[in-house]
Amino acid sequence: MNITQSTKGDNLISIKISVEKADYQETVDKTLRQMRQRANVPGFRPGMVPMGMVKKMYGTSAKMEALNNLVSENLNKYIFDNKLNVIGYPLSDLDNQQPNDLENQDDMDFCFEAAIRPEINIDYTNTMVDFYHIIPEEEDIQRAIDDMLERNPNTSHPDNVGENDRLEMKVREAKDGKEVEGGFEKDGLYIHMDQIKDKGCRKQLIGKEVGSEFIFNFAKALGSEEAAAKVLGEGAPAASDFNIIIDDALRSEKPELNEEFFEKVFPKQDVKDLDTFKAKVKGEMEKQFEAETDPILFNKMIDEIVAAAKFDLPDAFLKRWIVENSQGKISAEDVEKNYEKDYVKGLRWQLIEDSIVQANPELIVTDEELKNFVLKQIFPGIDYATLEDDMKANLDKIATNYLKDGPQKEQLKNQLADMKMTQFLKGKMNINYTETSYKDFMKKLEEERKAK
Prior knowledge:
Elements: E1 2-9, E2 12-19, H1 21-38, H2 51-81, E3 86-92, E4 108-116, E5 129-134, H3 138-151, E6 154-156, E7 166-175, E8 178-179, E9 185-192, H4 199-205, E10 213-216, H5 218-222, H6 225-232, E11 241-253, H7 259-265, H8 274-308, H9 315-325, H10 332-359, H11 367-378, H12 389-402, H13 406-428, E12 431-436, H14 438-451
Parallel strand pairs: 5-12
Antiparallel strand pairs: 1-2, 2-4, 3-4, 6-11, 7-8, 7-9, 7-11, 10-11
Helix pairs in contact: 1-2, 3-8, 8-10, 8-13, 9-10, 11-12
């Protein structure tokens, strides 16, 4: 066997594999012997079919299989041994490949065309991207603070039921003011005073002491039997009276904007006054806006770097490769028509991205990084480093199970890779930021969308 390589054009080579009979005949003979043992031919016992008949029946297919495996194996080995950095995989070389007669020809040539990844040098200093830095307005900051107050209420357990309390009850089915023996019962039933629609029933509850026991009708209180059934649960006689005991009342009240609240929202950050608190909220909002707009900036950086990086592509080869890689879903006509619009940018960016990652291996997503990323998605705000070992082990098990889903794992890995690449490019490229409000930013995005 002999393998030779020749240049066909910029970043395009031809690989010729010359095969002689001695390279594959032993494999063919072995395959035919195995086929002889399995052949079921009328008039012959198993394993006793004449070899000449076996060759006539299966010789060509056995030869084809041996050649396919031999050529494929040696093509891959040649690429690996010669460190050829190819794009995709080689295709048949239509310019050099001559027809092979499998039945009558012993020595054959197989020619392949391969695209070589171009050498890509990126001068980040010659890039410039215009983008926006969103500054929260006073009304945005106040809205965020109101939301924090809503999500971080002061809670207490009062002795008497108030208008907006959440109640925990014991419930027993009752009739004529007495509990029904063997009737429906439920402990730990929760209901919020907001759910009580009937004014009389609200009046009945407000002011009751925790521990009080009395007869109550949920269907009347909640406005319908359907609403009562949802609260009481499956199997409950929703229309019935019930003997209830109020076990607890939970009251949530809007906290004051004081040091206690500041410490609750920003623990151990020494926030003592309202101005410092607002500045902290503003800073956190700017970070959040930046995280939300980074994917938009990433696309703009890709556009700029693709335009700035100059290298040639073997377009004719890549068009063929797209068609063959689509498994019949894309025609050559479709690729020819939409190549520049739909494919070139993606192909060029993929090559650029691979080049950047090869030069900066820290951009490769590790299993540990992916695990931590998943845990932050599932348990936002958790400080993994401060957890006890047994809790870490439990969380690791959750992340491992979450990543067993192959497509889901790949999606998360790509998402994290894009985030790492975004931060890398932000540190390398020139970005001209213009300060704007969130409302104006959204308007500008809509204007850009319409202009496309």
